[in-house]
Design goal:
seven-stranded mixed beta sheet; alpha/beta; about 20% strand; about 350 residues; rod-shaped; 5 helices; Leucine-rich repeat, LRR (right-handed beta-alpha superhelix); five-stranded mixed beta sheet; 17 strands
């Protein structure tokens, strides 16, 4: 059996403590590029300098590998701190990132390409091989503010870019991030379709795309998100029938899809036609058919009333106007005589 001296163990602890404050060079460069591209009037990013990026504001690293695992610059609205600028693609070089929270700022431009480089967000098990320092995290997910302790942080993977000014389409490679538990891109200006393969993000518990300009149909693959507990697609330009099946059956709150006038199917009252497209009957075919039938009845009633009224007008005029009566019957006799003569001519 091997024994290690107390001095050797102390040396290992000192080395680990030293490495915990350092960070990987290319990850530090990526963070500095992000800093250079944003307007930081609050000066909170003043600590972003030097070699030890693990001590920078909003940054946390893995204690064993010194890789950046959390970037949290959320504006909590408790003080006027916000960041204005773009999210550089180089930020995706933070391969071990588990938490990316830039919510409630004034970030603009498109979502960075290369999101599939977030390999720890892609892997559902990778976080089990590292650990954080003894701290907690306040996270907004499922519409609630939740606090995760150091143990919970081992498994927590989240991307929250909500309440910014981001534009463009949602990158297709985002569906590779199968380890994410929370994805929030709400309250931006995103356009285009929801990625067809979004059902590949099987770990998602909370998905929020509300208040954007997304269009097209909701992919059927979303029914494969068995862990989904919170969903919000409201106030977009989505259309077509709402997918059904599995976990979606439990998400039956109509407000999930409100503000999309061309969506149809349960849990909305708007029904879909045979082609699965929006139907204006609002799920009330029998009522509308009855209304149409009532309209036809009124139409026929007015026609009959007009005929009777016209007949009575002529009748009473002839009844009380003697000269008109004589003229009318004389005209009828003349027409009758002429018809009679025309009928007899061939026989003569």
């Amino acid at each position: 059996m091997c024994y290690f001296s107390p001095n050797f163990i102390l040396l290992l602890l000192l080395i680990q403590a030293f490495l915990a404050n350092c960070c990987i060079e290319h990850e530090r460069d990526a963070l500095l590029e992000f800093k250079a591209g944003v307007n930081d009037e609050s000066g909170r990013l003043a600590s972003w300098g030097g070699e030890k990026c693990c001590n920078w504001a909003g940054i946390r690293c893995n204690n064993r590998t010194s890789r950046v695992v959390k970037l949290n610059l959320r504006n909590t609205n408790m003080e006027p701190i916000y960041y204005e600028g773009n999210i550089p693609s180089k930020l995706t070089q933070l391969n071990n990132l588990q938490v990316l929270d830039l919510a409630n700022n004034y970030l603009s431009g498109q979502l960075p390409r290369g999101l599939d480089n977030f390999t720890w967000m892609s892997d559902q098990l990778s976080s089990l091989f590292g650990y954080y320092s003894d701290e907690s995290l306040i996270a907004m997910t499922k519409g609630l503010k939740l606090e995760y302790d150091s143990t919970g942080l081992l498994l927590w993977k989240s991307m929250d870019l909500s309440n910014n000014n981001l534009i463009g389409e949602i990158p297709r490679e985002i569906v590779v991030l199968a380890g994410l538990l929370n994805l929030n891109l709400s309250n931006n200006h995103l356009i285009g379709n929801i990625p067809l393969e979004i059902g590949n993000m099987t770990s998602l518990e909370s998905l929020d795309f509300h208040m954007n300009n997304l269009s097209g149909t909701i992919p059927q693959s979303i029914s494969a998100l068995y862990s989904l507990e919170k969903l919000n697609f409201s106030y977009n330009n989505l259309s077509g029938s709402i997918p059904t099946g599995y976990q979606l059956q439990a998400l039956d709150d109509p407000s999930i899809y409100s503000g999309n006038p061309y969506l149809c199917g349960p849990p909305l009252e708007t029904s879909c036609g045979s082609s699965g497209r929006f139907s204006h009957n609002n799920g009330n075919n029998d009522s509308n058919s009855k209304n149409i039938g009532d309209s036809d009845k009124w139409l026929y009633l007015f026609i009959e009333f007009g005929f009777v009224a016209g007949f009575l007008v002529v009748f009473f005029i002839i009844l009380f106007k003697v000269k008109w009566r004589y003229t009318y019957f004389q005209m009828v006799d003349t027409v009758f005589d002429r018809l009679y003569v025309l009928m007899l001519k061939p026989k003569l």
